Amino acid sequence: MSPRVFILCLLLALSYEGLAGKRVNTPYEDPKAVFDYYFDDPRHINSALFWVRSYMNPLMEAPYNLAPEFMDIVVVIHGTEIVTVAKANQKKYAEAVGRMGYYASLGVKFRVCGLAAADYGYRAEDFQDFIEVVPSAITELGHWQQKGYALLTPAILDKKFSIEEIR
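Below the sequence we write its predicted structure tokens.
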């Protein structure tokens, strides 16, 4: 590297030294999202539900102050997590069922793939009362995307380190 380029880089780096990040309020409008839940472990639904919370909570707080009824949110369930919404498993997955029931009371729609339900031996009446069974998860996801809904697919990873360990 030439001395001139080095000095220029040094001056640019020094000019950024006292700058700090700033908070911005993106003008979110007409929030609508479809969440694609397809997990290899039914317990991952607990982590995936934090994605719904992370979508809704900032919109309900200042400066947006949107009521939940002004958000359109659909969760499409078609992986192993389908067992969490079966009435027979309510006790085993009580935390997830309670959280989904709460979100459903705020207007979040929970849809289960009819093809996956049949694979697991479930019928519509085997599910919690906030569940709607649709013909196919893939068709359902395509439908909502064609209606302008953002597709959000939670990436659920196993946490290996605490925040303190990596900070």
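The beta strands are 32-37, 72-77, 109-113, 131-134, 150-152.
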